[in-house]
Predict the 3D structure of the following.
Amino acid sequence: MSAYPHPVIAREGWPFVFAALAAAVAVWVLAGFMWSVPLWLVAIFVVQFFRDPPREVPQQPNAVLAPADGRIVKVEKTRDPYTERDTLLISVFMNVFNVHSNRSPVDGVVERIDYAPGKFINADLDKASTENERSAMVLKLDGERITVVQVAGLIARRILCYVKAGDRLARGQRYGFIRFGSRVDVYLPLAARPRVAVGDRVAATSTILAEL
């Protein structure tokens, strides 16, 4: 399955892309191409940051898919502070060169969304999960619950979550976006079998994080 109802350049980035291109063109016209080169480089960076390409969705029934592009920074057993249970935590760190669109890791129904204001320390650090600005989504599926937490990073200043309690999500469905470097934590049932290890690179939707 590869249905994708969103533009390849994320709509969250359109104002930034248009502004960067307009500035580059204006300087080119007024001062010449050489003076506009730095602005063209900025425009290229902005376009690549807000890219949001389609992804093939694995159809393995018990698969938990990566909710974001990036690098695995944590695979460990810990307490889920949102559902008050022992869980398997898998954390994905996104740098500024990763796709920042967030996708649902499973088919499920949103039980609740919890937003917490906080700091903007480096999302690669362990304490970012509890101290940074974050938005947690608790999903219910087949008697299980999975928590997916968007965590702001050092230069991230906007967490966008487009779902609410009662919404039904399909695996791979786009549900949010984080601007400029961040992290996503996934809390799974203890019985889940991880398919990734710390240091692995993952791609949103197409990489299987774990099996339920």
